[in-house]
Amino acid sequence: MSKVFSRISRRRALRSAAVGVVALGLLLWWLLPLGEDPPSGTIVFSTGTARGVYQEYGERLRTELAEDMPGLKVELLSSAGSQENVQRVATGKADFTFAAADAVAAYQLRHGSGAGRLRGVARLYDDYVHLIVRRGSDVKSVADLRHKRVAIGPPDSGVRLIADRVLKAAGIDPRKDITPVADGIDIGPDRLRRGKIDAFFWSGGLPTKGLLTLARKSAFTFVPIDAGLVAKLHSDGEEARYYRATNIPESAYPKVQHGAQVPTIAVSNVLMTRTDVDPRLTEWVTRTVIKSRDGIGAHVHSAQLVDLRTAIYTDPLPLQEGARRYYRSMKP
Question: Which of 186, 219, 278, 325 has CB atoms 3.0–4.6 Å from 50's, for a disulfide?
Fold first, then answer.
């Protein structure tokens, strides 16, 4: 009888081992394509401003790419934001970048150089428009910004693009009715704290570390951007259709919001490249972006929102061939 049990135990052990080998094989296939040497060389990745989500995401993604492709050197370029990022990739000054969908559409509609070569890699997360003032400010709505000193972001940033549109929707001329300042998330929070500006716009993922840092140093509050303004924005050209009414959830900045949501506007972000970038490289980059979601997301909250099921929706850009290959390989 003991021999029978011994044979059964060995059979079960072999079966378990076989299952383990299959599971390991599937895991390796998910992480790295078997039998294929990783791409090598040098690529340029345009990120964003200091203290912004683009920059931190780019830095952590570079680390993940180095693990999967040790022979690939990734050079990071800081930038003013989405508008500059789109132009850099379109004109070949960078190979990959992050950009908000409205900035991509604006570049396409004005037929910017190389616009036809732009392609999507993955839809990432949504940017939320933040309008920040000091606690106790008399600014309670966008319309109250008239005659105020307002930071609307650097000229080539996505912040500038959306801030100008929000102001116009509220009946404010950004050039005449306010004192416009080109501060970004890198210096805007400190200048607000010191009273050098009255308000500043920021568009970024939740939460943005620059604002978390400000919350520890100074009392500030968010100005709501109501759904009525979003409706007016939608009449402001084709690219405005990428804006949607939403709320900054109460958990984003708990020390500031005190359990309250803030009405605002959101726009999706895409990871993008060009048609002439090696599709095999793009396929590997896409794989790394998807599989590193949780690792990067532990530090960059927005990265937790990257989802394989929605990553393919890179509108207004069609998918680059390498990204398409990856998503097809992941179909059940």
Answer: 186
